[in-house]
Design a protein that fits this description.
Blueprint (H helix, E strand, L loop, with lengths): L7 E4 L2 E4 L3 H6 L17 H8 L17
Antiparallel strand pairs: 1-2
């Protein structure tokens, strides 16, 4: 699987995305073949929401583990 960018285009009353020839050849994708497509909008806030760091309280050390 390879991630690539492509422009969404009007195809009749639907929208379509073109697969670059190099990627189609690499994946051995043929005309009329059924493929699965994942949509990831290029909006970084959505990615941060899905894969960002967990927002918690600031870290406070519990000094109980120190030996005096």
């Amino acid at each position: 699987m390879r991630v690539f960018e492509s422009k969404v285009r009007q195809v009749g009353t639907s929208l379509g995305v073109l697969i670059p020839k190099e990627i189609a050849n690499e994946g051995k994708i043929k005309e009329n073949e059924i493929v699965q497509v994942a949509i990831i909008k290029k909006d970084l806030s959505l990615l941060e929401e899905a894969f960002g760091c967990v927002k918690t309280k600031p870290f406070r050390r519990d000094h109980k583990d120190r030996v005096i």
